[in-house]
Specification:
This protein is mainly alpha-helical. It has helices at 2-28, 34-46, 50-69, 75-95, 104-128, 134-146, 150-167, 174-209. It has one domain (2-209).
Length: 210
């Protein structure tokens, strides 16, 4: 039970860092990841909030994944979309009014820090092993069904998301390209440091409890 609680705590911290990064890329006005570009496009077209569309689209992907696998939906994946959606809307509410990229320097700074935080957040919450991400699960399913590599499957899904986001006036730009190029690199770069920090915390807790 204690291990589950620790995993959930790391999971939530990771998503909070991730959603801060998403918020910064949105506010940069230089473009977001393909998935987030779709969320912004749906928000611009139909209303609601960006976080609400995270929940709706995420739940839809969970259902589609279940249909593709002919299995029950992964309800914890819906939890991931729920917490992510709440995190995006919370950060936009708290910081959105004054963190806005009006000039190129501000925009570049926001998108750069946003991509860094996004990669860090993903690296942290992946280490929790608590709940899957709907898009990552879709990538795995597509790979299993087609025999493609993970990178090719992710690229195909990203292209489809960009096309749909474009149709809904999503935030597509240089930031979208930078997301595609550097998120994986950042995750690989920060993961060893994340593991060191998490392992140190575990050792400290064990010493205190003993």
């Amino acid at each position: 039970m204690q291990r589950i609680g620790k995993s959930f705590f790391i999971y939530v911290i990771g998503i909070m860092i991730l959603t801060l990064g998403i918020m910064l890329t949105i506010q940069s006005k230089l473009g977001t990841s393909p998935f987030d570009a779709l969320l912004v496009g749906l928000y611009r077209t139909f209303g609601l909030t960006i976080g609400s569309w995270e929940i709706v689209v995420g739940a839809t992907m969970v259902i589609m994944n279940a249909i593709a696998l002919k299995a029950r939906p992964e309800y914890l994946a819906i939890l991931t979309s729920l917490i992510t959606g709440i995190g995006i809307d919370t950060w936009l509410f708290v910081l959105g009014d004054w963190l806005i990229g009006e000039h190129l320097f501000e925009q570049t700074l926001l998108v750069s820090v946003g991509i860094l935080f996004t990669g860090l957040g993903i690296a942290v919450y992946l280490e929790s092993g608590f709940a899957p991400n709907p898009m990552d699960r879709s990538m795995v399913i597509l790979t299993d069904k087609t025999g493609w590599s993970f990178s090719k499957s992710r690229a195909i899904i990203s292209i489809v998301l960009v096309i749909i986001a474009y149709l809904f006036n999503g935030t597509i730009g240089i930031g979208t390209v930078l997301n595609a190029l550097f998120i994986g690199v950042i995750i690989q770069w920060v993961r060893p440091y994340v593991l060191v920090i998490l392992n140190k915390q575990s050792v400290i807790k064990e010493k205190i409890s003993s």
